[in-house]
Amino acid sequence: MNADWKPLAKLGAFCATGAASALLVVNTLSMPVPGHTVNYTAQFHSVEGLNVGNPVTMNGIRIGRVEAIRFTENGDGTSRADVEIEVESAHRLTTHVNAAVRYGDMLGARYIALADPDGRVIPLSTGNGPTILAAGATIPLSQTAPAVDLTALLNGFKPLFDALNPRDVNTLTRGFVETFAGQSQTLTTLLVQIASMTKSMTDNQDIYARLIANMTALLHDVSDRGPQVQKMLTGLQHLSASVLSGDDELATLIDQGNAVLATLASTVNQTGDAYGDTISSLKDMLDTWQDGSGEFTKLLGNLPQFADAVNRASSYGGFVSLYLCNFTIKIAKHEANIFGRRHSEVCQ
């Protein structure tokens, strides 16, 4: 008798342990809301990815869960999703509460985030507090927001992601998701950075004004010299084409230029002092010529009259004999008579 009772007791203990374990697993997976709860219905245009059992949070704290999701007709040819949520009764909501479907992680898990502008619940006895949302009431479409279409969002940034390594892609993607899903902390950081940049621009507005003025003047000059700029760009294009063509023309030109420079340098080095004296004498001649530029200009101005007089004299059959008695070129202390020292009898 005792032998038959012990196996039954062990079997009963094993079954009880298994049932308790199964109940614990079910409760863990379903994440029940502890204590007394109140149910509400939130209307959404779309709840893609949201499932029964997903969390309901307020200010980042879990206060409930999704109880049921139903498809409902609006009556005007459109449809919506009615989501029944279960919330702890200690967290009373007002009629101004907002609900949004957000991403819980990068794997696509969703949750419903509640935000109540009148979150500070005032006792009803005062008579001037916000209207409390009654149990079983509905949060209308005007106060809800669907989940961001993460697939469409990330597909738009695909060219950018292709140029980044996986770690940077994960960081950037999380920032996009948090920002577009309405994460207040990330959005606040973004706004602070924009405000800092705006303040910096305001503090340096004189610099930006001068920069814009200079850029405007530069663009006007470039516009006024449009043909020259176009010629320059065309020349650069031809030069680039020559460089990229792969032939030896540019290399030959550089080699020839190098040879010419080398020859010129060798010549200057060999002439030494004579080259320096030539440059100095040329400067002295040009300085003298500059001092007598008035007389030279007068001579050039009288040459046409002289030529006309010669033409008139010779047009009547007469003959004119011109004698150049002396033509000496003098540079500094050096002079030369290109016709020699012999003169005609007229000059003597």
Structure write-up:
With 348 residues, this protein is α/β, with parallel strands linked by helices. Among the domains are: 1-30; 33-147, no CATH class; 278-337, no CATH class. 52% of the residues lie in helices and 17% in strands. The chain contains 10 helices and 10 strands. The protein has helices at 2-30, 150-156, 158-162, 166-180, 184-203, 205-224, 226-244, 249-271, 273-291, 293-315; strands at residues 37-44, 55-58, 61-73, 79-88, 98-103, 110-115, 138-139, 144-145, 328-331, 334-337. An 8-stranded mixed β-sheet has the order 7-1-4-3-2-6-5-8, with no helix packed on it. A two-stranded antiparallel sheet has the order 9-10. Strand 9 and strand 10 (334-337) form a beta hairpin. The longest helix is centred in the N-terminal third of the chain and has 29 residues, at 2-30.
